[in-house]
Amino acid sequence: MSIRPAHLTPLFAPLTSLDGVGPKRARQFNQLLGRSQDQPARVLDLLFHLPTGVIDRRRIARLSSLVLPTIATTDIEVLRHQPAPPASRAPHRVVTETASGETLTLIFFRLDRRYVERLLPLGAQRLVSGRIDLFDGQAQMAHPDHILDPVKETLPPFELVYRKSADVTAGHIRSAVSGALQRLPDLTEWQRPDLQSKHAWPGFADAMRALHTPPETEDALAPGAPAWQRLAYDELLAGQLALGLMRHRLRIGRGKERSAPDDAVQAAAATLPFPLTGAQARCVTVLINDLRSADRLVRLLQGDVGCGKSAVAFM
Questions:
Q1: Which residues, 6 or more positions from 237, have their beta carbon under 8 angstroms from its beta carbon?
Q2: What gap in Å lies between CA 22 and CA 27, rounded to an integer?
Q3: Residue 295: which pLDDT band, with cuts at 50, 70 and 90?
Q4: CA-CA distance, 190 to 5, in Å (whole number)?
Q5: Cβ atoms within 10 Å, residue 213
Q6: pLDDT in tens, 215-232
Q7: Cβ-contact 207, 230 below 8 angstroms
């Protein structure tokens, strides 16, 4: 029988409970998240797979305002295609013009010519985003990260970056995280109200949503942002609580004192039908000293003697 509160159960469900995550994808997530087949990744593990950075996808006015190379987003019009000659390793080039009248060449390696022409038909207006470099003095973008029809699609101003793998792409992660956020309940606050108010920390669920949802400004994902601070403090506090519980469980119970005064030891030895040899007397002395040392150690661990108490002050 589980003692876990019922409202937390969705967070401990396997990733296969999320839409779009089948058994194969779940195994790939296991590897990414450091889980195993015996202990597969849960929804909570995915939520704690936090973004590592953010990409600025805001539109730029002019290419000439950029310090290249850099990632940029701009509107273009497709002017002409320059496909690679047959059996050539040369790229397929697409010459475009930006809204400011500047030329931007899109570069595609090893892509089918018909596919590129369908993606970027002549005269089409497109929104492209990716890394822009200079080649022979001309701005070019190789394999844009995004090619969108601005009439039908939009691009968030900031795109989150996640640690990914060869099998699990950023798109897979964003899709799965979106489903995981829907499972996130609004939990009763466990932080002190004065501490939360002092640092303007959001609640746990709001902090998770803030870090996994593309922010309105890049400052929202800065290391000092309230959402990051809240989760970092939660981790620190959880670690200290876990250590405290372990210390409590390992605390040694008070035992019976087994030390005896020297005259009692001598009286006991006198009742023996034979005198102790030198070796036997030394052995008795060692045993008595060991018992006294053990008793002192127990009292030391219990804080009765010779042990100052320390406390960790948070904030």
A1: 314
A2: 9
A3: low
A4: 15
A5: 15
A6: 676 676 777 889 999 999
A7: yes
